[in-house]
Amino acid sequence: MGGRTPIEPQRVDAPLTSSATFLVLSVKLEDDAAINTVRSTLASVEGLSKNVSIRDLSASFACTVGIGSDAWDRVTRQPRPAELHPFKEFHGKKHTAISTPGDLLFHIRAQRRDLCFEFERQLLDSLGDAVSVVDETVGFRYFDVRDLLGFVDGTANPVGPAVTDSIVVTEQDDPASAGGSYVVVQKYVHDLTAWRNLSTEQQEKVIGRTKLENVELDDAPGGQQQSHKSLATIEDDQGEEHDILRDNMPFGSPGSKEFGTYFIGYSRKLWVTEKMLCRMFTLDRDDVLCTFSDSIG
Ligand code: HEM
């Protein structure tokens, strides 16, 4: 908490909120005037956040900004973070983690939808035609922090001092980027009819936790089947586990038959999130394909 008024710029570890907007924008990178507009707007994000959050300090308003690899040099004129690069696609037999355009990400969070709405409105007013909107997704909190698949999502997130350890780049990692964090987002749309055709037991095996009580399950012996939670558990060569911080949100609307999960993961080391993705999409249990580690990070 930041003293008298709990407003802090760029709180990657902001508390879970009931509402969030994920806004992805493309910047007119060849246009100097557009770059100047983007630079001055980014410099004013702290001020914009204050404009909105002061109206209800109990609503835990927070906004974090991500700057994409292609836009980094033009927009920041700062040294590049060591691991920053365009999103790597992962091609599995069945599914592909696709790379889509986007130069700026705004992760806007609050307990009140109107605060997210108002911040986004003021932000886009300021950016004007320097940017175009690639994707705008409004997420909501669903029952006991469940995703639309019906499972409690976020349980294994780091807590306490482990949060900073997992998400903040240190001087030792990369002096020029110390204090920053890597963020990856993905938008998943669920085939809920197919999911509901699975028994609860089958669904629990996919996720790796029981549905009602959220108890962690062991994987089937012999590596026959690996659950989501196991594929997403990353250990390095020394056996040390590396966490990321997730603040996934359900999105969609029954009227348009759209049911989704917006994945957002913050990490101190980008390779950790990439390795999770690689293992999930390729089902590479033995890290034959997914060989990311600190040494090559
Ligand atoms: C449709 C998208 C996704 C859904 C619905 C989903 C849902 C879940 C659920 C229900 C859990 C178990 C409870 C918990 O610990 O949070 C979980 C765990 C986890 N997920 Fe996901 N997830 C999704 C995508 C991803 C992606 C893309 C990543 C990483 C790139 C990821 C990383 C993790 C991690 C690290 C855990 C904790 C594993 C552990 O137990 O240590 N998830 N997820």
TrEMBL record:
<feature type="domain" description="Dyp-type peroxidase N-terminal">
    <location>
        <begin position="13"/>
        <end position="141"/>
    </location>
</feature>
<dbReference type="InterPro" id="IPR011008">
    <property type="entry name" value="Dimeric_a/b-barrel"/>
</dbReference>
<dbReference type="InterPro" id="IPR048327">
    <property type="entry name" value="Dyp_perox_N"/>
</dbReference>
<feature type="domain" description="Dyp-type peroxidase C-terminal">
    <location>
        <begin position="145"/>
        <end position="296"/>
    </location>
</feature>
<keyword id="KW-0560">Oxidoreductase</keyword>
<keyword id="KW-0479">Metal-binding</keyword>
<protein>
    <recommendedName>
        <fullName>Dyp-type peroxidase</fullName>
    </recommendedName>
</protein>
<comment type="similarity">
    <text>Belongs to the DyP-type peroxidase family.</text>
</comment>
<keyword id="KW-0408">Iron</keyword>
<keyword id="KW-0575">Peroxidase</keyword>
<dbReference type="Pfam" id="PF04261">
    <property type="entry name" value="Dyp_perox_N"/>
</dbReference>
<dbReference type="Pfam" id="PF20628">
    <property type="entry name" value="Dyp_perox_C"/>
</dbReference>
<dbReference type="InterPro" id="IPR048328">
    <property type="entry name" value="Dyp_perox_C"/>
</dbReference>
<dbReference type="InterPro" id="IPR006314">
    <property type="entry name" value="Dyp_peroxidase"/>
</dbReference>
